[in-house]
Amino acid sequence: MVKGAPGNKGDKTGITRRRFTLGIVIASIVGAFGSLFSLLKVLSPAKEGGGYITTIKPGDRLVFAKGGKVGANIMVSSLNVGDAVLAYPEGKSSNPANLVQLIKLKETDFKPPTDIDLTDKGFVAYSAICTHLGCTVSWVKNKKSPDVSYTECFCHNSIFDPARGAKVMGGPAPIPLSQIGVKVKNDGTVVFTSDFQGPIGPQV
Ligand code: FES
User: Fold this and answer.
1) In this structure, which residue's CA is closest to atom 4 in ligand 1?
2) Pocket test residue of 140, 158, 159 for ligand 1, highest count of atoms within 8 A of CB
3) Helix, strand, or coil here: 41?
4) Does residue 202 sit within a domain?
5) Same domain (yes/no): 108, 167
6) Whether the predicted interface score ipTM is above 0.95
């Protein structure tokens, strides 16, 4: 009998090996997709029905989300005019949809459509999740003129004006970052005073 011909014992062994190898490859691919899906679940904010769900409540204190002071209360003295930090409500950092950018401007800098009633002592806060595809936004500080600093998403260069309700000044973001109320308390901590005023997260 010719080696490798149908019916040959060696050929059956070859077919079994090929099936076994194919099974391992398929299992590996399925496993890789499973791992990728799990990773995306961790990186993506909680969603329900296409919307991002936050658990911020009025009265929640803002804490640092990045840097050497992660988890520490943000105080009124923590920011100068032209500064901004990423912040979470205290004890609620496990939900990325809660991430905000807290910004300090001159009180006289705010223009419509900023909701002035949701600002305090020059502090204003917006969702830190870009409305294009959901990257975290960054702060671009103008050292010479701090009051003309702005928010930018470096994923696709959307630019938002923090003094004008985070209005989109450039790039593909379809809508502004949603404002959320903040207030400075007597003890110097900063707390939320409202829910987000509009949709948060990607809107495309
Ligand atoms: S995700 Fe922000 S500009 Fe695209």
Assistant:
1) 156
2) 158
3) helix
4) no
5) yes
6) yes
